[in-house]
Amino acid sequence: MKTKRSYGRRTVAGLMALSLSVAAIPLIADQGAAPTRQRADDAAGFKEFSANVKAYLELRKKVESDLPAMKPTDLPEMIAASQQVLARKLREARPHAEAGDVFTSDAREAFRRASGSALAGPRSADSRAYMRPGRPNPLMRLTVNGVYPDTEPNTQVPPELLASFPPLPVEVAYRVVGRTLLLVDVKSRLIVDIARRILPPPS
User: Which of 55, 74, 80, 160 is the least buried, fewest Cβ under 10 Å from its Cβ?
Assistant: First the structure.
């Protein structure tokens, strides 16, 4: 009788362990699927961002083609005047531009996660130190279709951060002001779009 009761207890215990194992399988599978879904969401957000950048560059090309060709010059005042004309024409071509036109909601989330990963690793301190020299005033007033001031430095974006962001055509560039990420037209210095609270706060 003792042998039968012992066998029975072992059988029940085994069935309970098996039931728990089977119940845990969906949880493990769901945990494995979460990073995959996140990667897919980030890829979709970055794809949307890149498509919006392409659309802006097509508009920029049309605007610039309507302007008289500028003769080669080293005169700062001539270069500045050309920049101002291009910036004005770009503003006129996109009068209703606002934050989020290029950095869409999905794109901003993808940039936040990419920034968090890039600046949270073992080289986080080095990356932040890389951005520190000559950094612009974090309280600077930033507006879409505004001009990035000539008096403010261009923050050097660390390689780890650039590697995690979508590559950009040479006509536009990323700029960092505090935790804010900008997309800036290189030639006109026009602020194409603004994404706030993208970089993680300093730890």
Answer: 74
